[in-house]
Recover the amino acids of this structure.
């Protein structure tokens, strides 16, 4: 039997390539497997947000394949992961530096839709846009010079996919 974490991350890989390409999956899975999320609060927030989204999709029967045992993916419930992600985001947004917090807010907005919580979707979408403005994500000239190709691609994916997703929501 796989652990819920493994199932969630592997299930995310299926979703990631088509619906939410916000991660470079080999890098993300390696970071989680090496337990980096346990000492990087932003990565922890992103990871918990992903688990919330996957658990919500499993709960609602919205998995892309039948190879997963739905019951393994819904415990703990989506709301438990959502709360962990939410509590990991600093109240002082200036302290929420880096792509992981931006991605966590974006995924929490998507998970809020999955959970039928429109006010939370608006809140986390707004937090995402605030963080991207503070961090200068909208302009590559403002990005750190020492980003790896993977980090650059992940930033581009966030810049292009979340506004597209927000437009789809409002239409």
């Amino acid at each position: 039997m796989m652990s819920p974490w493994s199932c969630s991350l592997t299930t995310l890989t299926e979703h990631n390539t088509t619906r939410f390409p916000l991660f470079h999956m080999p890098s993300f899975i390696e970071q989680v497997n090496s337990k980096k999320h346990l000492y990087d609060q932003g990565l922890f927030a992103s990871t918990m947000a992903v688990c919330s989204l996957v658990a919500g999709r499993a709960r609602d029967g919205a998995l892309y394949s039948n190879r997963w045992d739905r019951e393994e993916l819904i415990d703990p419930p989506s709301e438990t992961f959502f709360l962990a992600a939410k509590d990991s985001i600093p109240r002082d947004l200036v302290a929420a530096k880096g792509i992981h917090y931006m991605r966590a807010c974006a995924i929490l907005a998507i998970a809020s839709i999955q959970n039928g919580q429109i006010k939370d979707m608006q809140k986390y979408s707004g937090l995402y846009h605030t963080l991207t403005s503070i961090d200068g994500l909208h302009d590559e000239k403002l990005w750190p010079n020492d980003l790896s190709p993977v980090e650059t691609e992940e930033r581009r994916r966030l810049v292009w996919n979340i506004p597209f997703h927000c437009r789809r929501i409002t239409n």
User: Anything to note?
Assistant: The first helix runs from residue 4 to 16. Confidence is low (pLDDT under 50) at residues 1-7.
